[in-house]
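Duplicate of #3305? Posting structure anyway:
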């Protein structure tokens, strides 16, 4: 009996340990499955925006001229503002449209020369923005001005300083945004479009401008009279006289006999 009791104790301990281990391994699996489903939901809700190489160039120009040719942090801050405006729905629906909007960005932003030595840093920052990275300190800001300036408005909620600029959101006394909210970076997918699409050329090849109409050939056994001649004179019928004319009445007067 003692042996059985002694033997029973470790067996029960093994069973309890096994159940505890099983419960520990199943819980993380449930959490992992939930995380996968959550990731799928986030992926499904992304909004796609198209961009071209010109849009990428416009983004670089905005970052360069608005951040005082500063550094990666300043470039990313301005790039975040551009993307916030794009995804808010309150501004033009393309990057170039936003950057070229009058009296919004630096004068000459679309025409001035970008120094060649800045291209590498600008390329890295622009590609990072277009692949979903943001300056997290900028948050939902869509406005900025040169750091150090002061304005009397009470709706300027400052969130960051970078690249010589102070970035701010417009919020009311209750803290609510006074502008449409931009999309978060994980809700946005950027789709690159080549400059010249081949679809129009393919369409022209498939649908010709003019379709020739074939002329039917004569039947093999058809007989063509080549000796046919028009008559020398053609009789022209005389017009019929009116019904009440003298020619039809035969010279009778209207009273008869």
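Output from current build:
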């Amino acid at each position: 009996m003692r042996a059985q009791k002694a033997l029973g104790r470790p067996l029960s301990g093994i069973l309890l340990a096994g159940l505890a281990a099983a419960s520990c391994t199943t819980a993380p699996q449930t959490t992992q499955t939930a995380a996968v489903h959550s990731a799928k939901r986030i992926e499904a809700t992304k909004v796609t925006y198209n961009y071209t190489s010109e849009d990428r160039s416009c983004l670089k120009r905005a970052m360069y001229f608005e951040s005082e040719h500063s550094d990666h942090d300043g470039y990313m801050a301005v790039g975040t503002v551009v993307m916030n405006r794009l995804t808010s729905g309150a501004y033009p629906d393309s990057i170039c449209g936003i950057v070229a909007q009058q009296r919004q960005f630096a004068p000459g932003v679309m025409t001035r020369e970008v120094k060649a030595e800045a291209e590498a840093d600008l390329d890295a920052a622009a590609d990072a923005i277009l692949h979903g990275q943001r300056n997290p300190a900028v948050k939902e800001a869509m406005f900025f001005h040169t750091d150090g300036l002061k304005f009397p408005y009470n709706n300027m909620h400052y969130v960051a300083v970078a690249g010589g600029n102070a970035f701010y959101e417009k919020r009311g006394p209750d803290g609510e945004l006074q502008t449409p909210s931009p999309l978060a970076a994980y809700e946005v997918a950027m789709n690159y479009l080549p400059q010249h699409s081949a679809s129009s050329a393919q369409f022209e090849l498939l649908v010709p401008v003019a379709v020739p109409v074939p002329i039917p050939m004569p039947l093999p056994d058809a007989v063509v009279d080549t000796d046919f001649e028009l008559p020398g004179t053609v009789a022209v019928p005389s017009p019929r006289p009116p019904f009440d004319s003298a020619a039809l009445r035969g010279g009778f007067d209207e009273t008869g006999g």
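Confirmed duplicate; merging threads. Strands lie at 47-51, 143-146, 156-162, 165-170, 188-192. The longest strand covers residues 156-162.
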